[in-house]
Design goal:
Blueprint lengths: L12 H16 L3 E8 L5 H5 L11 H13 L7 E12 L2 E4 L7 H8 L3 E4 L2 E4 L5 E3 L2 H14 L2 E2 L7 E2 L2 E13 L5 E12 L6 H7 L4 H30 L13 H5 L9 E7 L2 H12 L1
Parallel strand pairs: 1-10, 1-11
Antiparallel strand pairs: 2-3, 2-6, 2-9, 4-5, 7-8, 9-10
The protein binds adenosine-5'-triphosphate (ATP).
Adenosine-5'-triphosphate binds next to helix 2 and strand 8.
């Protein structure tokens, strides 16, 4: 891998966001951009993407990107009008769920959104995924806070509150400007902010399964299925997409995540991958570079 920048445990959320800021500019110009947080369970993906959304210093990339977008929209006299909408998709065990569907219960919203990835002329999209019109950064942060409560978490050896699903938060920004010739120019950009589920090796995962009896067996089987689905989709993403973005045949079909994001992958749109490493992975990297 080639890294454009490297951050340490002392780097601030603000510093990390500077890597992503140019993508906000792209979106304001009407382009599509994607940020992935990719790494082993417990290495800080959710911390990096969401952080503590109510704390100025600790808030992560999502709240900072939202604020940067609304700041741009507020530039005096630049836009005649604008509209922003947000959606939040969860992919768990290769099933799609809408994290922003209110009123209806969680099970129902899952049922509705489930398995509806289908193709249309313009690409692949999640059918029935709700889009929420938002007027301010505070509106978006409110939606995120509610979504966080619905996200599937579980305990892994390395993280007590581990995200067991991939989450794709998407902001769609439409702006209208008047050109010097007096015409109106409309553009629509999209920013996908993806917090991936954490990978976990079988040996480590087995260590976290305790107890006996048929209930424990069923729970263990469910955990194994979850772990395999997570690892399979991360493998496709890491091995085939991030390593060889210009390769002609990327197996997008191997996972719902890559299928849904195929427009943004393969070098067609601006993409930033934030790889988070555990202390033991860092030690291996360091000793390898010393050798
Ligand atoms: N740079 C950091 N500074 C302070 N705390 C951090 C940092 N990175 C991670 N943490 C803390 O470590 C714990 C695990 O981080 P987090 O949940 O973000 O990991 P994750 O990679 O998203 O894990 P998973 O894939 O299992 O969901 C959290 O309590 C988080 O607040």
């Amino acid at each position: 891998y080639h890294f454009d920048s490297v951050y340490t445990s002392y780097s601030t959320q603000c510093e990390v966001f500077e890597t992503v800021r140019p993508l906000v500019h792209e979106v304001m110009q009407g382009f599509e951009a994607t940020v992935f947080a990719y790494g082993q369970t417990g290495t800080g993906k959710t911390h990096t993407m969401e952080g503590e959304i109510v704390c100025e210093e600790k808030k992560g990339i999502i709240p900072r990107a939202v604020e940067a977008i609304f700041e741009s929209l507020g530039e005096k006299g630049k836009y005649v009008s604008s509209a922003v909408s947000a959606s939040y998709l969860e992919i768990y065990n290769e099933e799609l769920s809408d994290l922003l569907t209110e009123a209806r219960g969680r099970a129902r919203s899952r049922e509705i959104a489930r398995d509806r990835a289908r193709s249309r002329e313009t690409g692949v999209y999640a059918h029935n995924l709700s889009e929420h019109e938002v007027c301010s950064a505070a509106d978006v942060l409110g939606l995120i806070a509610r979504a966080q409560e619905r996200r599937r978490v579980g305990e892994t050896r390395m993280n007590k509150h581990s995200s067991r699903s991939h989450c794709v938060f998407t902001l769609t920004v439409t702006t209208r400007e008047t050109t010097s010739e007096g015409m109106t120019m409309e553009s629509t950009g999209k920013l996908h902010l993806v917090d991936l589920a954490g990978s976990e090796c079988a040996k480590t995962a087995a260590g976290s399964a305790a107890g006996g009896g048929s209930g424990a067996h069923a729970a263990h089987d469910a955990r194994e299925r979850e772990r395999k689905n997570i690892n399979q989709s991360l493998l496709t993403l890491g091995r085939d997409v991030f390593l060889f973005p210009s390769q002609a045949r990327i197996p997008y079909r191997d996972s719902k995540l890559t299928r849904l994001l195929q427009e943004s992958l393969g070098g067609r749109c601006k993409t930033v991958v934030i790889a988070t490493l555990s202390p033991s992975q860092l030690a291996v990297e360091e000793s390898a570079s010393t050798l």
